[in-house]
Design goal:
The protein is an alpha/beta fold and 236 residues long. The protein is 36% helix and 15% strand. The protein contains 9 helices and 8 strands. It has an 8-stranded parallel β-sheet. It is globular. The structure holds 2-phosphoglycolic acid (PGA).
């Protein structure tokens, strides 16, 4: 792991209700987490005022506008009301399930960059691309960074191979290290790994030289496993 505080981020996706998130955040606030920068990304209806001392609340998605006629979307003004300044952009579920194009992702990025948000920008290849070898993976990841200001100071990049998300099988340490070593050449941003990170494998993943933290889905839903991952950051 590099020398900055590791970033441990939980993406709750469409899980946990507002009352569950409130209970979770209060419990997390009382854990010893000073050695890490801890973020949670609840679903929109469960967003909480970002006033916790030991964790940041971020949004999983937002439309690139202050407000307006964008049925079903939330916008900057909604996030500002909660003092939220962290946002996930480009998650593979939005790219694949919701058809977000690189152009639209670029538009979101530019809008929230201007607002000085901390942007967790996600990239990652499918299994078919991984099977074509390292160069194919690297070219694909580079294409997902097209149009993105990779020197933006509040940028965090999460490398999340699609085949490792929610499958229980994380990428191998060697694959993570070599991919992140390549990404280091493209951007000075901290690099996270995501894809089936859990309390058992977090320590070795966080121990990798190029890894600046982890983005966690399933294993962030229970505070016991998420806190296990936070503790792993202390040991690695
Ligand atoms: P997972 O999800 O930890 O359940 O694999 C990671 C993510 O999608 O961010």
């Amino acid at each position: 792991m590099n020398h900055q505080k590791p970033i441990i981020a939980g993406n709750f996706k469409s899980n946990l209700t507002r009352s569950e998130v409130l209970k979770y955040a209060k419990a997390l606030e009382n854990l010893p987490t000073n050695h890490a920068s801890v973020y949670i990304f609840p679903t929109h209806t469960a967003l909480l005022e970002n006033h916790f001392k030991h964790l940041h609340i971020g949004a999983q998605n937002a439309f690139p506008a202050i407000n307006g006629s964008f049925t079903g979307e939330i916008t900057l003004s909604h996030l500002q009301e909660f003092h939220i300044t962290s946002l996930i952009i480009g998650h593979s579920e939005r790219r694949t399930l919701l058809g977000e194009s690189q152009d639209f992702i670029n538009e979101k990025f530019r809008f929230y960059e201007k607002e000085r948000f901390t942007i967790f920008y996600c990239i990652g290849e499918s299994l078919a691309i991984r099977k074509n070898g390292k160069n194919a993976v690297n070219d694909y990841l580079a294409s997902q960074l097209e149009g993105i200001n990779v020197d933006y100071e509040n940028l965090v990049i999460a490398y999340e191979p699609i085949w490792a998300i929610g499958t229980g099988i994380s990428a191998g340490l060697e694959e993570i290290e070599s991919t992140l070593t390549y990404l280091c050449e493209l951007t000075p941003a901290p690099l996270l790994y995501g894809g089936s990170v859990n309390a058992n494998n977090a320590e070795e993943i966080l121990g990798l030289e190029s890894v600046g933290g982890v983005l966690v889905g399933s294993a962030s839903l229970e505070i016991s496993s998420f806190s296990g991952i936070i503790n792993a950051a202390l040991k690695s």
